[in-house]
């Protein structure tokens, strides 16, 4: 067997996985060849359980029967790994298309729509000067934790219009008192 022929025969095996060869001289006239099939794109950890194919023979025996002996087991291991990979991809596709996943997505869309409607209603009430009603129309923070900041900002803004500020009331009263005193004194 010539080296050029070796690589042609590897290419003819039509393997989609990586083939790692380890060649060790076992004794004076015996060689140990270990062939490991790997495929990093397969996400199934069971691929790691597949043991390497080990051959032991004289240089002449390996030259004469190497490809005949490894072809079937290597193709079988490669096929198994490819099937694992295809199976995992199929599971992902099935999960994404399952009725349960679609139902979950529909619930999320409905929840988002409910949130948007509540915000629009609150904004409309606030434009009409009905700040207490606008505050009450806002969605609850517990129902929409991802929108906590926005809801709290709107609540604070609406509260400014219907809850008197202690300091601003005191300031207004003191200003009115001063005006009243000036008007009383000639």
Concise structural overview:
This protein has 186 residues and is α+β, with helices and mostly antiparallel strands. The chain is built from six helices and three strands, in the order αβββααααα. It has helices at residues 3-12, 59-97, 99-127, 131-137, 148-162, 166-184, and strands spanning 18-27, 30-38, 53-57.
Describe it.
The protein is α+β, with helices and mostly antiparallel strands and 186 residues long. Helix content is 64%, strand content 13%. The chain contains six helices and three strands, in the order αβββααααα. The protein has helices at residues 3-12, 59-97, 99-127, 131-137, 148-162, 166-184; strands spanning 18-27, 30-38, 53-57. It has a three-stranded antiparallel beta sheet, covered by helices on one side. Strand 1 (18-27) and strand 2 form a beta hairpin. Helix 3 (99-127) packs antiparallel against helix 4 (131-137) and helix 4 (131-137) runs antiparallel to helix 5. It is rod-shaped.
């Amino acid at each position: 067997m010539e080296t050029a022929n070796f690589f042609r025969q590897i290419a003819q095996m039509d393997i989609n996985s990586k083939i790692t060869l380890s060649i060790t001289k076992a004794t004076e006239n015996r060689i140990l060849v270990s062939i490991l099939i790997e495929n990093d794109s397969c996400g199934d950890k069971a691929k790691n359980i597949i043991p390497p194919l080990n051959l032991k023979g004289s240089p002449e025996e390996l030259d004469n029967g190497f490809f005949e002996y490894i072809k079937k087991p290597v193709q079988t291991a490669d096929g198994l790994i490819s099937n694992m990979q295809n199976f995992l991809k199929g599971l992902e596709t099935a999960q994404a298309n399952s009725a349960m996943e679609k139902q979950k997505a529909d619930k999320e869309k409905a929840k988002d729509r409910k949130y948007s409607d509540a915000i629009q209603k609150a904004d409309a009430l606030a434009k009409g000067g009905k700040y207490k009603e606008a505050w009450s129309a806002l969605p609850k923070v517990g129902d929409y934790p991802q929108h906590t900041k926005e809801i709290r900002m709107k609540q604070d803004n609406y509260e400014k219009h219907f809850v008197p500020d202690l300091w601003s009331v005191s300031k207004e009263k003191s200003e009115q008192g001063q005006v009243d005193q000036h008007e009383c004194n000639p």
